Every structure is written in C-alpha cells, then in structure tokens.
C-alpha cells in the first residue's frame, strides 16, 4: 500500500510516517516507480507506535516494541526490552503521582489554615 493509504488507515499523516521512517521505525521498500510500498506489518507497527504515544510514550520509548514486533512476536510487549520500558514508565508515573499528592496535601493544608483564620474579609460589590 502507498503512504497515503497507510496514513488514512492508521489515522495519522504522511508527514508522520516519513518521520517514523527517518527515525528508523519504519522501513518501507520502494516500488519500481520510487513510491514507498508498505505492507500489513507496517500497519501493525504504526498502530503500535500510535497506541504507545497515546498513553504518553515518547517515540524513542516505542523502539523496543517495534523491534519486538519486527522480530516476529505476536505482541510488541513480548520482549524483555519492552517490559523494561513499561517498568521505567510506570516508575515515572508513580513519581509524578507522588509529587502531585504532595502538592495536593500542601494546598489542602493552606486552605484549611485560611478557613480557620478570623476575621475573614468579605467581598463587597459596588452598586452603580
């Protein structure tokens, strides 16, 4: 299939597909006329890339999953390198959640302190 069809089928752009190729994630052979000739394997690879990016993976993070599929595995996360990326990303998310928990606790403490202080100023509105 040509690049436009692959882009349409995967819901991405031809520009993105060319970028993936420039980054070594796609390797489309050229037809006699010079056009890229993508197959169903490329369709699977692009879907894997897009799915992983949708959950926050960088393009570089997708490499082990793409390589795993390329090596013939049914799933991109069947290989040890892919599992390592999952573990690293999960640790990053946990760290972000912990930081957000600290921020939330700090805000809640400030709100509680503000609510118990007396006197409170009242907002006034001026009448025209």
From TrEMBL:
Pfam families: MerR_1. This is MerR family transcriptional regulator. Keywords: DNA-binding, Transcription, Transcription regulation. Residues 1-68 form the HTH merR-type domain. InterPro entries: DNA-bd_dom_put_sf, MerR-type_HTH_dom, MerR_fam. Gene3D superfamilies: 1.10.1660.10. It comes from Amycolatopsis pigmentata. The keyword Transcription applies.
């Amino acid at each position: 299939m040509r690049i436009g069809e692959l882009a349409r089928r995967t819901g991405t752009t031809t520009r993105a597909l060319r970028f993936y190729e420039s980054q070594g994630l796609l390797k489309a052979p050229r037809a006699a006329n010079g056009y890229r000739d993508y197959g169903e394997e490329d369709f699977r690879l692009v879907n894997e890339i897009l799915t992983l990016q949708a959950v926050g993976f960088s393009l570089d993070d997708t490499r082990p999953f793409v390589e795993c599929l390329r090596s013939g595995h049914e799933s991109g996360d069947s290989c040890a390198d892919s599992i390592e990326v999952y573990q690293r990303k999960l640790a990053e998310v946990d760290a972000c959640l912990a930081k957000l928990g600290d921020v939330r606790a700090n805000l809640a403490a400030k709100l509680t302190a503000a609510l118990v202080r007396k006197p409170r100023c009242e907002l006034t509105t001026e009448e025209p």
